[in-house]
Design goal:
By secondary structure, this protein is of the alpha/beta class. It has 34 helices and 24 strands. Strands 3, 4, 5, 6, 7, 8, 9 and 10 form an eight-stranded mixed beta sheet that branches. Strands 16-17-18-13-19-20 form a six-stranded mixed beta sheet, sandwiched between helices. Strands 12-11-14-15 form a four-stranded antiparallel beta sheet. Strand 1 (66-71) and strand 2 form a beta hairpin. Helix 28 (754-766) packs parallel to helix 29 and helix 31 (834-841) packs across helix 34. It is elongated. The chain starts with 8 loop residues before the first helix and ends in a 5-residue tail after the last helix. It comes from Cardamine amara subsp. amara. Pfam families: ABC2_membrane_3 (PF12698), ABC_tran (PF00005), ABCA12_C (PF24526). GO terms for molecular function: ATP binding.
Length: 935
């Protein structure tokens, strides 16, 4: 017994879940390959790491230098010694420093060819004798002048026996060598370049040399005197302007007017010391390098502090800056891990690879119209979203879990050094946002190929922009943090930022043994900000995606509310013209069409359950596009179809039949008018209509890997069939369409022939005994025997169902349809049962005769004698066809005339036929198209 109660939400969700589960079982290896993709990508990263270890981490340049002390007779080294004395400046970074050396506090000064030029000393550039310039400004010029004099020492203290400790600390020493990444081997001391003693005035005795030992190394340094010039500027604007305009001109090698330091004393007085220091930050090196170089700022701070102390306490009071010193350390090795270095870029791509998979899956169902056909059979949006989202979430969760497991098992510190719970929560939020974006973006695509290209552009574009743009701005200290937040609103950058934080914490732990990312560091990192962004975007994207999906599935314009604000209403003249055209159209309607309209109007006034489908003056107008005028596809159709009736729609291509079916099935909305199915409005209650509707589309919409039986089980569950009723209905449906025997029911639909797919589509539309069924050319592609069997199935099914059928087969229409409507140019031209139409439009016989060409005139005279009002339809190669009105002739008279003609000339063939439904169709179509200009 058939259950006509609409299926509940859980029933429909269960039907889709079972169908998807069966579908995924058939594609199990595709899912397995998808889940293990992280394993292969992690192996690739391990291979890159092994190559990097061989070429970089384990190279001789990246460890403390060694030298063979004792050599064997065969030339091999028996004992070697390692230390700073055998190391280059790069190798020294990795040597052990149990007792780090004392280092001179040096001031960074420009090279001679780059120093600022004073107007009075313009020729110093040629002699390379330009002074080292220090600029001073402030609110108190007299105080500034005093502190300027106190900046530099006027005497030189030092001799060749000093090891640059306390005596040299009284002098202002500088170097043109840039600092390195560490102070273990400062280039200012360990290079061949001299050290400069900066004094207000140089005298010959101020140049000297001295020797010293440091970590088993002996150095000989030359100390040269260089003049220091303190210049006053009126305000900080002048200093900024001088630095900006003169620092770099021309190419990068031409650096001029560089100063050593500048001081803004602001409101400094005897009771308050307030100063701003300018220094050259370009000596830090490239900010993209994690190892930023030191800058020699401490000596600049000491100079102005010392000058202020002398201003307060006298010239004999000084703050001695003896030396700087590094922390002791053991011997180290380079331990750079590629997963931490390129992890943000690499794993951004790994996680985003799921996005094209989800997007193409959604667009595929849209392109193949599988989503539409499921909805037409009662599957609502909510069950579809819930089951599809759950599937994507399950696959994505397994994907990221396998990524974490494989990465940890292989030993990638990116995963091992960070808390797994934080990683999982972050990935879980990211994949949820990614699924929501896939649902949202799928509304914008109708083809899988286009969606796939766009998805991969998003994947690789996000990674590349993150690695080569976002990360540089993130590490740049001058880029506003508020703009970093704005950039993180882009989902690709928020994902990249989270991975960047994981890589930084893993890198630091690998380098110096600190903790990786833990929950206790969560608020101190940027992850809290990223989490909030992802959660909010996830929520908003879900809402937007659902909104767009409902609009697209209901054929509404997403921006309709904007268009209404700018809508232009028609002028009175246009309205009057439209009324005139409507009046002409009404006058052209035939009596049977007018009677159908009156019946519909009566049904609208007095609702009745006897008619399942009622269409009241329904119209569809497609807007103008690409300069083309508006297209009126359906021009005011009024139709009532009762239960147990099969109504056939005939018409030429482009007549509007498909537009009418699309409106009735909810694919497009009517422009004007209304239609009701079982009293439910198709504009407002389509979801309820779907629960009692069946559709056989013109093209078979099937899953290639599902069997015919599995298709019917799925659609049967959507019709609320359960248990034995479901199995019985499926079995009977398969038997009726001859798909039960020989194991055909258990074969994948992709292996069916075209006729078998067509029969399955008809069986799907009729399962569950729906109240209304739309069939678009159901017997296309079938052989005569299968076609007749299918007609029998449809005729049996219409007992308790209202069926609207479109066909180009007059034989099919005459066999199946209780009433026919011929549809031309968007309007019903006639309506009635086949006998009525043939009687109304077929009041003539068709007479055909074939003779030799010289007897054609004789045939014409014969026909004119029989029927003076006969019309010649055509003639070709001696064959002529005439239309003879029935009221003017009797069949016996035609036979007598032909027998008499045979005695006068040779007749090869002749015939007399009654009007067929095909003749009626052609006649109505031609007559209607002749008046096309009025509609």
């Amino acid at each position: 017994m058939t259950n006509h109660v609409p299926a509940s939400f859980l029933t429909r969700a269960n039907a889709l879940f079972r169908k998807n589960l069966t579908y995924q079982k058939r594609n199990i290896w595709s899912n397995v390959r998808l889940i293990v993709i992280p394993f292969y990508l992690c192996l690739l990263l391990v291979g890159i790491q092994a190559l990097f270890d061989k070429q970089v981490n384990n190279s001789a340049d990246k460890r403390c230098g060694c030298q063979c002390i004792v050599t064997n007779e065969d030339g091999t080294c028996q004992r070697k010694s390692c230390g700073i004395q055998y190391s280059s400046q790069i190798q020294a970074f990795f040597c052990a420093f149990p007792k780090p050396p004392l280092l001179l506090p040096l001031l960074q000064i420009p090279r001679p060819e780059s120093r600022s030029i004073d107007r009075a000393r313009g020729s110093c550039r040629r002699t390379r004798s330009c002074p080292v310039t220090i600029l001073v400004t402030g609110n108190n010029p007299s105080l500034g002048a005093t502190l300027s004099r106190n900046l530099l020492s006027t005497s030189f203290t030092g001799n060749s026996s000093d090891i640059f400790l306390r005596n040299l600390a009284y002098n202002v020493l500088g170097t043109t060598s840039e600092a390195d990444y560490t102070n273990y081997l400062d280039p200012g001391i360990h290079s061949d370049l001299p050290i400069f003693n900066i004094q207000p005035r140089c005298i010959p005795i101020t140049n000297l040399s001295f020797s010293f030992r440091q970590s088993d190394l002996e150095f000989h340094k030359e100390v040269r005197c260089v003049q220091g010039l303190n210049l006053w500027r009126n305000n900080s604007i002048e200093i900024n302007d001088e630095i900006f305009k003169g620092y770099r001109q021309g190419n990068h090698e031409e650096i001029i007017n560089e100063i050593a330091a500048a001081y803004d004393l602001l409101d400094t007085d005897r009771n308050k010391f307030n100063v701003t220091i300018w220094y050259n930050s370009t000596y830090k090196g490239d900010l993209r390098d994690r190892r930023v170089k030191y800058v020699r700022v401490p000596r600049s701070v000491n100079l102005v502090s010392n000058a202020y102390l002398q201003f307060l306490q006298g010239s004999k009071t000084k703050i001695l800056f003896d030396f700087v010193k590094e922390m002791p350390k053991q011997e180290t090795r380079l331990r750079l891990e590629m997963a931490s270095l390129i992890g943000p870029l690499f794993f951004t791509w790994v996680i985003l690879l799921l996005f094209p998979v989800m997007l193409t899956s959604l667009v595929y169902e849209k392109q193949q119209r599988l989503r539409v056909i499921m909805k037409m059979h009662g599957l609502g949006d909510a069950p579809y979203w819930m089951v599809s989202y759950a599937y994507f979430l399950a696959i994505s969760t397994l994907y990221v879990i396998s990524l974490m497991i494989f990465g940890s098992a292989i030993g990638l510190k990116f995963f091992v050094f960070n808390d797994y719970s934080i990683q999982f929560v972050f990935y879980f939020l990211c994949i949820n946002l990614q699924i929501s974006i896939a649902f949202l973006v799928s509304s914008a695509f109708s083809e899988v190929e286009t969606a796939s290209v766009a998805a991969y552009i998003y994947v690789f574009g996000s990674g590349l922009l993150g690695g080569f743009l976002f990360q540089f701005l993130l590490e740049g200290l001058s880029f506003p943090r508020s703009w970093i937040f704005v950039m993180e609103l882009y989902p690709g950058f928020s994902l990249y930022r989270g991975l960047y934080e994981f890589s930084q914490y893993a890198f630091k732990r690998n380098l110096n043994g600190s903790d990786g990312m833990k929950w206790k560091y969560f608020k101190d990192s940027a992850l809290d900000e990223v989490f909030y962004i992802i959660i909010v975007e996830w929520f908003l994207t879900l809402i937007a995606a659902y909104y767009m999906d409902r609009l697209s599935s209901s054929a509404r314009d997403p921006f309709l509310f904007l268009k209404k604000a700018f809508k232009k209403y028609p002028t009175p003249q246009k309205h009057s013209l439209q009324s005139q055209v409507s009046a002409v159209s009404i006058e052209m309607e035939k009596l049977d069409v007018i009677q159908e309209r009156e019946k519909v109007e009566q049904l609208m006034l007095e609702p009745s359950t006897s008619h399942t489908i009622v269409c009241d003056n329904i119209k569809k107008v497609y807007p103008c596009t690409d300069g083309n005028p508006k297209k009126m596809a359906v021009r005011g159709l009024s139709l009532a179809v009762s239960s147990g009736e099969c109504f056939g729609m005939l018409g030429p291509n482009g007549a509007g039949k498909t537009s009418f079916i699309n409106m009735m099935t909810g694919l497009v909305k009517p422009t004007l008018g209304s239609a009701f199915v079982q009293g439910l409005d198709i504009c407002n209650d389509m979801d309820k209509v779907y629960t009692s509707m069946g559709v056989c589309p013109q093209h078979d919409l099937l899953w290639e890997t599902l069997t015919g039986k599995e298709h019917l089980l799925f659609y049967g569950r959507l019709k609320n069939l359960k248990g034995c009723d479901l199995n019985q209905a499926v079995e009977e449906s398969l038997k009726r369409v001859n798909l039960f025997r020989g194991g055909v029911a258990d074969k994948p639909a992709g292996k069916y022939s075209g006729g078998m797919k067509r029969r399955l589509s008809v069986a799907i539309s009729l399962i569950g005994n729906p109240k209304v069924v739309y069939m678009d050319e159901p017997s296309t592609g079938l052989d005569p025997a299968s076609r007749m069997n299918l007609w029998t199935v449809i005729k049996r099914a219409k007992k308790h169902t209202a069926i609207i059928l479109t066909t180009h087969s007059m034989e099919e229409a005459e066999y199946l349809c209780d009433r026919l409507g011929i549809f031309v140019d968007g309007r019903l031209q006639c309506i009635g049962n086949p006998k009525e139409l043939k009687g109304r439009y077929g009041g003539s016989y068709v007479f055909t005769m074939t003779t030799s060409s010289e007897n054609e005139k004789d045939v014409e005279m014969l026909v004119q004698h029989v029927s003076p009002n006969a019309k010649k339809l055509y003639h070709i190669a001696g064959t002529q066809k005439f239309e003879i009105p029935k009221e003017e002739v009797r069949i016996s008279e035609v036979f007598q005339a032909v027998e008499k003609a045979k005695s006068n000339f040779k007749v090869f063939a002749w015939g007399l036929a009654d009007t067929t439904l095909e003749d009626v169709f052609i006649k109505v179509a031609r007559t209607s198209q002749a008046f096309n200009v009025f509609s």
